[in-house]
Write the structure tokens for this entry.
Amino acid sequence: MIRFEHVTKRYADGTTAVDDLSFEVAEGELVTLVGPSGCGKTTTMKMVNRLIEPTEGRIFVDGDDISAIDPVRLRRRIGYVIQQVGLFPHRTILENTATVPHLLGWKRGKGRERAAELLDLVGLDPSVYGDRYPEQLSGGQRQRVGVARALAADPPVLLMDEPFGAVDPVVRERLQNEFLKLQEQVRKTVLFVTHDIEEAVRLGDRIAVYGQGSIEQFDSPATVLGAPATPYVADFVGADRGLKRLSVTPIEEGDLDQPPVVHLDDSLARATERLRSEGARWAVVLDGQDNLHGWIPADGTGGAGAGDTVRAHARRMEAWLPVGAPLKQAFATMLQHDAGWIAVIDEESTGRFLGVLTPARLHEALRRSIDADAHAVPRAEVAVETVESVAR
């Protein structure tokens, strides 16, 4: 969808902002451009909509050489979101959102209908916010309007220049989450500029790590964190890149342990006797369809009657996640609930229990993920040395 071919931007004073840049962004892909201030990432993005003209090389959007397209026409087919949002203060939120459709000659009713649809999509009820003015919105709400406005004419390409950089960390994380959900629905081709490696890792399908005017590494977040291509990249992503990688490494079924399980209608006496004989301190409780219900300890069920079933004494399961959730979320859930393990379920089958993830298995999953990327093999094919395997 976007292709750079040997693109250079050199200014009259001899400064080279971008030097011989060549890369491609696939349709529907979100690529983050990350690097320190002055490295050329914003210049790269602005050349796509011809706010800055390249000195050498060619840029293609959807197969068209953009140098042959009128800049105004080009910009109207590319969404653009900036940190300062740039809303018109004298126009309502609905009018701001309908700006590009209006410029494209859409009928007023159609433009307002599209604007209302987009406001609703970004979580702003048009009946509540449509007639308000920008000054009546919070910073996070204005950023949502900026995203809605950029999407209003349904452009195939979206350029985002540090769009969440001006809000506080809590709002920023919320906006990132909402944007990821939105991207799942609209699947735009996105160039996203940021100086924050954690934001780049969290949002990007691929990351372009910039040095001075050139890309040092262009790869998936997991590979950039697990196998930095140069000492510069290793230094930029930080010594804690292993922790950052937790956020882009999903839980897989192969990462899970299989603990004892009991069912709701099992006899409590038999269930606890079996757990004690096996030396187990607890068991996962499932319903009749093997969906997660809770857990039960081998001891501590005082007051149990002779005919009691597990159902009467099962405890609520607080620490659980769906398979595919990032390891970072798993680690956070363990800490939040002071849990030595978390249950993992298959949400697509209404909660079927798959196994449990322990801290040791989480560590193994991270190590397998790093080794798998380093050797270009599936995670399941990687064996890691553990304390238990050494003991055997």
In short: The chain has two domains: 2-246, 253-365. Confidence is low (pLDDT under 50) at residues 387-392. The chain has 16 helices and 17 strands.
